[in-house]
Each structure stands twice: as structure tokens, then as C-alpha cells.
Design brief:
Mean pLDDT: 75
Strand content: under 5%
Shape: rod-shaped
Helix content: 55-70%
Order of helices and strands: HHHHHHHHHHHHHHEEHHHHHHHHHHHH
Structural class: mainly alpha
Largest sheet: 2 strands, antiparallel
Number of domains: 4
Distance between the termini: 121 Å
């Protein structure tokens, strides 16, 4: 069944047999080879041809009835009309210069020998090889039925004959007859070019591939290149190269661009800029269309061209790559927000750039020699915009983490104990936040990964002191919560710095500061609990009553909390030299022979060079030796403190420097 016509040329060219018959008619009833001239219009013989040409150009320039058919190449029509008008003007000038008036066409004498030679030179076959069926059909019918090779054979035969007639000055008395026949050839050549474009367009748009049509297309392009190898003289439109191979490549580019632009057509225009999900849907459909079409080119269309030298795969690959790049540039202009920008970058880097994009290893998109999908400047701008939005988003995520912890405080939820340690979701939330964004950025580029890691580090450095301040100002401060947040800070210090060494080293300072602050408040809680119990030791009743039992119970309860705190922070150190301090203080407090207290103080000062005068006074205040004896001991220890080695010389033997003297002891020191 013949396919629908894509062009409607003007007057139909006759086959070579019909052309010979028409030349035997009497002059009174003779007709032109290409157009029927109405009687009585010999002076205006050129007008019907120009009108027909105008109508044909108008039809071929109209937009196709379906949105799936791109417009024909207007450059082809402009080039054809320009050369045709030059040829027409030249023919008219030659006729007028010879002094002949415009008259009706005279019978041209057919040259059987010349016709046969021309046909053999252009098509490789003689007149006897023409099929009877083809000879009975006009060129227009052959083009409509996509018998392009046979149509070109007839056009080439008529073109060769017309060139011979022009050379023999057959049209010297009637240049308009030459113009009409040249015009007919031009229209039908353009019709064949339009049909080539239609075949290319339909090859991607239809479900199946018409391999016969593609093979016919490739063969006729090859025949045309052999027939028209060199440009003719200026102004001569006949026998000039038609550049159908370039026309084929242009049709491939237009077809690929149309397919790519139609992808995501179900999404309303502008909707892709409203949300990341819409943009992701559009890109998913775009990828599906490109994948389907390129698979079709490689597996179905390329075999149809295998007998020719057409670079089918390379041409289609470049055409789709260029069309996708143009579409992404359009989407990039409308992309807003962190999510949309990431979806766009991720699709370009990880979906389209994946070796499995086309679904088979042998169909992978090559990285060379294709240009980058997005220009480096555009890519840099998209990454910059993404990181700008990311800073705001990550800051907002840390705000959400703080709000979640505040809800737990208000609800009075106690921290869980996991693997023997107090646990708070804080550390897990921070780890997930940082790891998620860094991993996502690393999937796009190493530069974006490093930038994202720096953004996370800066945001976390600001978040830690803000979180510390909010917690200490709340009513949730307790041994459990303080222990859980000490563990969280310790976990972030060890795991984050180990996973991203050097990159977020600036986190060390705020995390250490927060840890010390939580530890300090943890000690203040136990201090507030035991302080009233120590007041009983200031009286003589502690000698007759068991006032130490409540104090011991408080210390034991506090020790149970410390068991659920990370060990390196639960005990200052595992060094055995710390035990000597307890023995020295115990000997001072329990020594019955008061003169030996001087010796115990000397041992304490020599063992711990970081001890200070306030610490000595606090110990003497607990011992209650009397004002005069205390003054003598202070004077003796003052010289020992001055001669004690500097703390910097033994940084690992630090104990009393971290012990603050309580306010209640300050009162006793003042009294002493």
C-alpha cells in the first residue's frame, strides 16, 4: 500500500517512453514535457510554472499535521530556488541575446543514442533494463511510493537529456521551455529530498523500522553522489551536487532533537521547575526515550545501512547527545533549590554518564570524542548554586536535630543504655546527615564532595556550642543526659575524624570544649549532692556518728553513672601514680602524730608538682590542726611549692590543676 505523500510537486514529469511519444505530436497539439500549456497563453508560458513552483514551496514549508513530524529544511528550498532563478535568468538572457522572441515550445528531437549513453553513465544500466511498470509511472508516483532509486533514474535521464539539449542550443528560440523543464527537475529533486527527511523522521517515530525504505534511501544518496560529483558553472542548476548526505545528517539531528524535546511532554510546561519529583520524572522519561531510540538505531536501523558507508551509529549518537545537552541547558535555567539542582547534576553524572545507560555493555556511550554534556562553565555554576542551597539546607537539618532533642527533654525521656553506655540519637543523626550529603556529592564529583564536607564541618562547628548552650539552659540536665552527650561528643570526635581525616579537623576544638563542659556539669551535680554531707565533717559529731556512710553512698551512685560513660572520659587515666594522691591525703587526715603531717605534705608536693597553695589550705582545713600549726605548715610548704618542678616538664602528671577548690572551703581558708 503506497505511503501518504509528503510533498506535492507541481507538474508530473513523464517517463522516458512517454517523453518520446509526446515529441511525435503535431505542433498544434504539442505539449511541454513537464507542464500542459493552455491555448492562447503563449506569451505567458512562464507563469504556470512559477505558480506551480510557488504552490509547491508553500506546501513543503507548511508545518506537518502531526506534532511528531518536524518541519522540512527551509535551507534546501532557499538553495534550490536561488539556483533555479539564476538558471532561469541565464536562460532568458541567452535567448534574448540571440534575438529570438518568446514563443511556444518547439518539438525537441529525441536522441536515442545520447539518452542511452547518459543513462549508462549515471545509473549503470541501459534503456532496455528499465522495468515496464516503472516506465508507466510518473516520477511523483515513484517518490510517493518511495521507489526512490527508480525515481532518481528517471530524473537523472531527463536531466542528462536536458543538459544535452541546452548544449545543442535546442532552446535558443524558446528559453522558457528550458526554464519549465529545469523547474520541474528542481521540484522533483526537492521532493525526493523531502521524502528522505520523512523516512528518517518516521524511522524513529514508528514502532517498527522500514528497512527497505532505509536501504532505498542510502542507495539513492550514493547514486546521487556518483552522478553529481562536481559543482557546475555559476548559475547552472543542472547536474550540481544535491548534498543529500548532508541533508540526511540534518534530518537525523532534527529527528533526534524532536524526540528529546517531546520527552516529558506529559509533564506540564514549567512544572519541572516546581519540584524535584517532577524534574526527576521528566529526566526519567528523557532517559527512557534516548535509551529506546539509540537501541533501535544500533539493533534495527544500522543493519539496513550496512551495505553503505553511512556512519549511522556515530551520527545518531552525536545527534542525540547534542539534543540532550540542549535540553539539560534549558532545564538548568529553570532549576531551583538544592533538590532540583542535585537531581539535574546526578542525572547528568550518574544516569546518562553510566556505562549501563543503554542497557548493554556494547552500547555504552563513549566519553570520547563526544563533547561534555554540560559546558564546564555551566557545570561549575550548577555546582556553585547547589552548594549555596546546601548550606542553608544543612543548617536547617541541624536545627531539626536540636528540635528533636528538645522534644525528648520536654517529654522527660531518659537516655537508653546500649552496649553498656548511655546513648542519645544525637551522634547517629549527625553521622547520617554528614555521610548522606558527602556520599551524594561524591557521586557527582570529588570537588563537590570536598566542598560539601567543608560545609558540613562549618555547620557542625556552629551547631555544637549552640546545642550545648540550649541543653544546659534546659531542665533536662542530669547525670544520664550529661553522660549520653559526653558519649556522643566522644563518638563524633573519634568516628568523624577517623572517616574524614584532616578535612574536618576544625571539629576537634568545639567537640573537646563541649565534652569538658558536660563533664564539668556532671561533677558539679555530684558536688552539690555531697556538699551538705561534708558540712557534717566540720563538727565533732563525725567522730561519734557514721556520717561518712551517706557520703559513700552518693559517691557509689555517681560511680554507677560513670560506668555508662565512655571509659577514657569516665576516669581521667589508667596511670597507677594517681593512687598515691589518695594515700597521701588519707595519711594527712588520719595522722595521729601531728609532727609527721609535715612529712606527708612534702611527699604530696614532690609527687604532684601541679598542687597549689589553695589545695594545701583545703586539706589543712579538713584536718583542723589549729591556726598556729596551720600557719607553720603553710610557711614550710611555701618554700617547697616554689622549688617544685614546673608542670610543663611533666605534662603527664597532672591532677590538682583540674580540681577546683569549692566555695565552702574558701570560707575555711579565710578563717585560717
Amino acid at each position: 500500500m503506497p505511503l501518504p505523500r509528503t510533498v506535492t510537486p507541481g507538474p508530473e514529469l513523464q517517463s522516458p517512453k512517454e517523453l518520446g511519444k509526446s515529441q511525435t505530436l503535431p505542433q498544434g497539439t504539442r505539449k511541454s514535457n513537464s507542464m500542459k500549456e493552455p491555448k492562447g497563453q503563449h506569451g505567458n508560458a512562464l507563469k504556470p510554472s512559477l505558480g506551480t513552483l510557488k504552490r509547491t514551496f508553500f506546501r513543503t514549508s507548511l508545518p506537518p499535521p502531526s506534532t511528531h513530524k518536524p518541519k522540512d529544511d527551509p535551507g534546501l528550498i532557499r538553495r534550490s530556488s536561488r539556483f533555479l532563478l539564476r538558471s532561469l535568468r541565464r536562460a532568458l538572457d541567452e535567448g534574448l541575446a540571440a534575438g529570438f522572441p518568446q514563443v511556444t515550445a518547439v518539438p525537441e528531437k529525441p536522441s536515442r543514442v545520447a539518452d542511452g549513453v547518459s543513462r549508462r553513465a549515471s545509473t549503470g544500466m541501459g534503456p532496455e533494463e528499465l522495468e515496464p511498470q516503472a516506465e508507466s509511472k510518473s516520477v511523483t508516483d515513484l517518490i510517493t511510493e518511495r521507489q526512490l532509486v527508480k525515481a532518481f533514474e528517471q530524473l537523472r535521464y531527463l536531466e542528462t537529456q536536458l543538459v544535452a539539449d541546452k548544449t545543442s542550443r535546442t532552446f535558443a528560440q524558446d528559453p522558457t521551455a528550458y526554464a519549465r523543464r529545469a523547474m520541474d527537475l528542481c521540484i522533483h529533486y526537492d521532493g525526493m529530498a523531502a521524502e528522505i527527511g520523512a523516512i528518517v523522521r518516521e524511522a524513529l517515530g514508528s514502532e517498527g523500522v522500514d528497512r527497505d525504505a532505509l536501504a532505498e534511501l542510502a542507495q539513492v544518496v550514493h547514486l546521487e553522489e556518483e552522478a553529481h560529483q562536481a559543482p557546475q558553472a555559476e548559475g547552472d542548476f543542472l547536474s550540481t551536487p544535491r548534498h543529500w548526505r548532508q541533508h540526511w545528517e540534518d534530518a537525523v539531528r532534527r529527528s533526534a532533537q524532536e524526540r528529546v524535546q517531546q520527552a516529558g511532554g506529559k509533564v506540564a510546561p514549567g512544572a519541572a521547575a516546581e519540584g524535584a519529583s517532577d524534574l526527576a520524572q521528566l529526566l526519567a522519561e528523557l532517559g527512557s526515550v534516548v535509551r529506546h531510540d539509540l537501541q533501535k538505531v544500533r539493533l534495527e536501523m544500522q543493519p539496513a545501512y550496512e551495505a553503505t558507508d553511512f556512519p549511522v551509529w556515530e551520527t545518531y549518537l552525536r545527534a542525540f547527545h547534542s539534543a540532550v545537552a540542549q535540553r539539560l541547558q534549558e532545564l538548568a535555567r529553570d532549576a531551583r533549590g538544592c533538590e532540583q539542582l542535585y537531581v539535574l547534576l546526578d542525572w547528568a553524572a550518574n544516569v546518562y554518564g553510566s556505562p549501563n545507560f543503554l542497557g548493554a555493555p556494547d552500547l555504552a556511550l563513549p566519553t570520547e570524542p563526544l563533547p561534555p554534556l554540560l559546558e564546564p562553565a555551566l557545570w561549575a555554576r550548577l555546582e556553585s548554586d547547589y552548594t549555596s542551597f546546601l548550606e542553608t539546607k544543612i543548617s536547617s537539618c541541624f536545627d531539626s536535630i536540636l528540635q528533636l532533642e528538645q522534644r525528648r527533654w520536654e517529654a522527660g525521656e531518659d537516655p537508653e543504655v546500649l552496649q553498656g553506655l548511655y546513648h542519645a540519637p544525637l551522634s547517629i543523626d549527625v553521622h547520617m546527615l554528614v555521610a548522606e550529603h558527602v556520599k551524594a556529592a561524591g557521586a557527582i564529583s570529588s570537588e563537590l564532595e570536598a566542598t560539601t564536607l567543608q560545609i558540613c564541618a562549618r555547620a557542625l562547628c556552629l551547631f555544637v556550642p549552640r546545642f550545648e548552650k540550649a541543653f544546659l539552659a534546659s531542665k533536662a540536665v542530669s547525670e544520664c543526659y550529661l553522660g549520653s552527650y559526653i558519649n556522643s561528643c566522644m563518638e563524633m570526635r573519634t568516628s568523624l575524624l577517623a572517616r574524614f581525616p584532616g578535612t574536618i579537623k576544625e571539629l576537634e576544638k568545639p567537640l573537646v570544649a563541649a565534652t569538658k563542659s558536660f563533664q564539668k556539669h556532671l561533677l558539679q551535680i555530684v558536688q552539690q549532692d555531697v556538699q551538705p554531707l561534708f558540712k557534717a565533717l566540720y563538727t565533732r559529731s563525725w567522730l561519734t556518728q557514721d556520717t561518712l556512710r551517706p557520703l559513700v553512698d552518693k559517691v557509689v551512685d555517681f560511680a554507677r553513672h560513670l560506668e555508662h560513660v565512655t571509659p577514657p572520659l569516665a576516669q581521667g587515666s589508667e596511670a597507677t601514680w594517681l593512687d598515691q594522691a589518695i594515700l597521701c591525703v588519707a595519711e594527712i587526715l588520719g595522722e595521729t602524730y601531728k609532727d609527721d603531717i609535715r612529712r606527708h605534705l612534702e611527699t604530696l608536693i614532690q609527687s604532684y608538682p601541679d598542687i597549689r597553695r589553695d589545695h594545701i589550705l583545703a586539706i589543712l582545713a579538713l584536718r583542723r590542726l589549729g591556726r598556729r600549726r596551720n600557719q607553720n605548715l603553710l610557711q614550710h610548704t611555701q618554700g617547697l611549692l616554689r622549688t617544685a618542678p614546673e608542670v610543663a616538664s611533666s605534662p603527664h602528671r597532672v591532677l590538682f590543676e583540674e580540681i577546683e577548690v569549692p566555695t565552702s572551703v574558701d570560707v575555711l581558708i579565710t578563717c585560717i
